[in-house]
Design a protein that fits this description.
The complex is a heterodimer of chains A (171) and B (277). With 171 residues, chain A is mainly α. Chain A has a single domain, classed as Arp2/3 complex 21 kDa subunit ARPC3, CATH 1.10.1760. Chain A has helices spanning 2-20, 37-42, 49-67, 72-91, 94-99, 110-133, 139-169. In chain A, helix 1 (2-20) packs parallel to helix 3 (49-67), helix 3 (49-67) runs antiparallel to helix 4 (72-91) and helix 6 (110-133) packs antiparallel against helix 7. Chain B has 277 residues and is of the alpha+beta class. Among the domains of chain B are: 1-94; 170-246, Rod shape-determining protein MreC, domain 2 (Thrombin, subunit H, Beta Barrel). In chain B, the strands form 2 sheets. A 6-stranded antiparallel barrel of chain B has the order 1-2-5-4-3-12. Chain B is elongated and about 105 Å long. Classes of the chains: A mainly alpha (171), B alpha+beta (277).
């Protein structure tokens, strides 16, 4: 139960920061950190795929409602949730994965986590900017935006992960 | 059936995924349509002002026709000036006598600022009102034919019962024989009206001119109304059913004259003493 509460609090904080702060950064239109995806990345490894997609969808929808973007974020988040299980199997070794069935990401190696997060963050951003422009003639601009925003988002994701983990490790 | 269920069971995740993405896409596109609508609304404001500019421009282009018709009208008026008549033709222009106080009809030019032709009862609005001396029940004419009758007057504007109105019954006469009838508009085409009450013994031809009759207490005598376009004699009837091509093109009206009859009160009070039974 406390685990569920922790995820809920994380979701709420991420949404608040996303809507009030990160939505308005937009450095040169290139660096737009969509940090709320951290919630989808950090959901327990054993989360059923259907539930995962539904939660990602609702999270994205919440961001959409507050940023007046229709269903863009819902679309990108659901896509991330859809490919997450396959990507976990690829990036996190099978043995570790089997052991980790019922535990959180806390035990995943930092390198593995970065690889895991990097692709999903990039997919998220790519989907977002693609559906935003709905015009692949400016694919270069889409790729540029997706790349730089992913970089910034990934930086924040990794930072957040260590902020979250530290208190548990120190005692 | 089983196969379908098994299919759904097997691909339920994929189907769920597609469903969610479908919803997200619909939301996105709807949001775009919303933006599109906002965009269209603002462009309507742009196109609206654009159209009004176009209107102004086309009115400008029409100035030539308006000028031509005005010049033609001035020519006919000039021909009527007493100075242009030989001395003994005062009967040709009986309305203007030697004194300005006895002038019967006063003309005031006005611009049509609103006009319809599509309803059963059409009205016009003129840009002159009581401050310009316009009075209710005055006649409204254009250089091409009669237009209507002033209905209401405000200080700066006046409304006109168009000839294209159920309530407009104009006393008219055939120019050739002088036979009087009534012009009224049956609705439909705004270029045509009906002339009724012309008895069958009168000789009528297509193209004959219809003028206002002296019986009218509103219109001066002899103003052009139109020409006969169709002649019909109903089976067993004793009156013609005449179709009149109106002189005035009601869709192109821009300048008109309001004709005030200074003697109308005198005529009315005299006629009111008659006791029709």
């Amino acid at each position: 139960m406390s685990e569920v509460l922790k995820h809920l609090v994380r979701l709420l904080l991420l949404l608040i920061f996303q809507i009030t702060v990160f939505n308005h950064i937009g450095l040169h239109g290139l660096f737009n950190p969509f940090i709320y995806i951290f919630f989808v990345l950090m959901l327990p490894l054993a989360t059923p795929a259907g539930l995962l997609m539904l939660m990602a969808f609702l999270t994205g929808l919440a961001v959409d409602i507050f940023s007046n973007t229709g269903g863009m974020h819902a679309f990108a988040s659901t896509l991330v949730a859809f490919i997450r299980p396959f990507w976990i199997k690829t990036t996190i070794p099978r043995t570790a994965y089997d052991e980790l069935q019922n535990i959180s990401f806390r035990e995943v190696e930092p390198g593995q986590f970065v690889t895991y997060a990097a692709l999903l963050v990039f997919v998220h951003n790519l989907a977002l900017y693609s559906i935003e422009s709905l015009d692949f003639s400016d694919i270069f601009v889409i790729l540029m935006k997706a790349f730089f925003s992913s970089l910034l988002t990934l930086l924040l994701v990794v930072a957040l992960r260590y902020i979250e983990i530290r208190p548990r490790r120190t005692p | 059936m089983r196969a379908i269920l098994r299919f759904f069971a097997r691909f339920r995740l994929l189907l769920f995924f597609l469903l969610l993405e479908g919803i997200a896409l619909v939301l996105t596109v709807q949001n775009n349509q919303y933006h599109q609508a906002v965009f269209l609304n603002s462009s309507n404001a742009v196109s609206g002002s654009f159209y009004s500019e176009i209107n102004e421009f086309s009115e400008y282009l029409r100035l030539k026709q308006v000028n031509d018709s005005l010049v033609a009208y001035v020519e006919t008026l000039q021909a009527m000036l007493p100075a242009n008549q030989s001395l003994d033709t005062s009967s040709f222009y009986p309305l203007l006598t030697d004194s300005i106080v006895s002038q019967r009809y006063f003309y005031t030019g006005a611009k049509v600022i609103n006009n319809t032709v599509d309803f059963r009862n059409n009205y016009l609005t003129l840009n002159k009102g009581s401050l310009n001396g316009i009075k209710a029940r005055s006649a409204v004419i254009s250089s091409k034919g009669i237009v209507g009758i002033i209905k209401d007057v405000s200080p700066r504007f006046s409304t006109v019962i168009s000839l294209l109105n159920k309530n407009a019954r104009i006393s008219a006469r055939l120019k050739k024989s002088g036979t009087a009838g009534t012009v009224l508009w049956p609705g439909g085409n705004y270029r045509y009206a009906d002339l009724i009450e012309i008895p069958e013994h009168v000789e009528v031809k297509v193209g004959d001119t219809i003028l206002t009759s002296p019986y009218s207490s509103i219109f001066p005598d002899g103003l052009f109304i139109g020409t006969i376009a169709e002649i019909e004699l109903p089976e067993g009837g004793s009156m013609y059913q005449l179709r009149v091509k109106l002189g005035a093109d009601f869709k192109q009206l821009s300048y008109v004259w309001v004709v005030e009859d200074r003697f109308v009160a005198e005529r009315d009070s005299l006629e009111s003493k008659l006791n029709y039974e």
